[in-house]
Amino acid sequence: MPLHRRPSQALIALFTGLALAGCSGNPTAAPPPTIAPAQPAVSPSVAGSPDGAVRQLPGHWMSAVFDSATTTLVTLGTDAAGHPAVSVGYAVLPLPRAASALAGDGAGTVFLATHGGYLQLDVARRALTTVAVDGQSDADFTAIARRADGTLVLGTSDGVVLRVSGSAVQARTTGFSRVDQLVTQGDAVIVLDRGQTSVTELNADGTGTAQALRAGSGATVMAADAAGRVLVTDTRGDGLLVFGTSPLLLRQQAPVRGAPYGVVGSPKLAWVSETATNSVVGYDLSTGIPVEKVRYRTVQQPNVLAFDDHTGTLFVVSGSGAGVQILPGADR
User: Fold this and answer.
1) How confident is the model at residue 33 (pLDDT cuts 50, 70, 90)?
2) Which terminus of the chain is more solvent-facing, meaning fewer CB atoms within 10 Å of its CB: N or C?
3) Average of pLDDT values for 258-265?
4) Is-contact 170 206, C-beta < 8 A?
5) SS3 state of residue 152
6) Buried b (16+ CB within 10 A) or exposed e, 193-212
7) The model's pTM
8) Residue 105, exposed/middle/buried by CB under 10 A (0-12, 13-18, 19+)?
9) What sign results for the dihedral spanned by CA atoms 103, 105, 108, 111?
10) What's the number of CA atoms in the CB half-sphere (13 Å) around residue 76?
11) 3-state secondary structure of 165
C-alpha cells in the first residue's frame, strides 16, 4: 500500500482547525473538518518463519487485551464463519451482537462496546452480561475504556463520549467527528479521532475537552502505558508519537517505516507493528529519544498487539487469519 508523504490541502485545512480547537479547549458547534482515516498496509506474504510460536485462531480479529488476573488473552472480532465473537484463551465464544471495541480491568472482567450499550465478560467463567445504557438505544458505540475510579467511558460513531456507571450516564462530551478509540491514564480520558487525526484529553468531570492536539498526518491506534504515557501510531506519517497527559503534550516522536499500526506498552519498551513488513519493533523511551532495541518477524498482517507484564510475553494477533504469535520474554 502506498503511503502519502505530503499533506493535502484538506489536511492543511484540517490541521488549522485542530490548532484552533486546541487553543480554545472547547468543541465547536459546526461539524469538524475530516479526512479519510489512515489504514494499515496490506501485508505481503510472510518470508521465513515468524519468531516465537504461533497458535492457530480461526477468524479475523481487530483488538485484544491481556487479563492479568486470569492470565488470559482476549481478542475481539469475527469467527471463521464471519459471526461476531471473542476468543478467550484461544477458545472462540460467540457474541449475542456485534461489538466494536474492548477494554479490561485486569481483574477478570472485559467490557465490549456494542450498539446501545456494552457487554460485560467474566473471563474465568466465559459468561456474558448485556448492559443497556440509559437513553442510548440508538447509539452506535465504537470505543470503550475504564477509568481508575471504575466508571466506563463509551464513544460513539457520531462523536459523543459518555461516562457511565452501570447503565447510568454521568457525563457527556460532544464535538468529535467520530470516537475511534479511548484510553485512560488514571481518571484522565484520551480520545482518538482518526478523521481529524487528533488526540483530545477530556476535562476532569467528562463534560468537555481540556486539550486537543493534532496527531501526525494519519493517526490510527492508541495505547496507554504503565509510565503514564499515551502511545499513538501515525500510519500515514510513518511514525510513533508519545504524549504526556494532564496536560496533553507531545513529548517524543520517532520515524517508523513500514506503515506502523498496532501499538502496546510494556515495562521496558513501546511496541509498534509494521504492517508493510510483517515486523514488530520494540522502542526504548527512557532517554527521551525513542531508540529501536529489538525487532521480530511476525505473522502476516500484524494489526493487533497485547502484552503480559508479568511474564514479559508479547502477543501479535493477525488481522488476516494467520493466528496469534507468542513471544515470551520479548522485552529482555
Assistant:
1) confident
2) C
3) 98
4) yes
5) strand
6) bbbbbbbbbbbeebebbbbb
7) 0.91
8) middle
9) negative
10) 25
11) strand
236 vs 56: CA distance, rounded Å = 30
CB 235 within 8 A of CB 261: yes
Q: What is the pLDDT of residue 31?
A: 60
How are the residues of the chain apportioned to helix, strand and coil, as percentages rounded to the nearest 5? Answer: 5, 50, 45
Q: Is residue 181 in some structural domain?
A: yes
What's the distance, CA 221 to chain centroid? 5
Residue 127 is assigned to a structural domain of this protein: yes
| CATH number of the domain to which 41 belongs | 2.130.10.10
Q: How many other CB atoms are there within 10 angstroms of residue 39's CB atom? A: 15
Cell numbers at 107, concatenated: 481483574
The boundaries of the domain holding residue 229 are 9-327
- Say how far apart CA 227 and CA 233 lie, in whole Å: 18
Determine phi and psi for 24, rounding to 5 degrees: -75, -35
Residue 2: inside a domain, yes or no? Answer: no
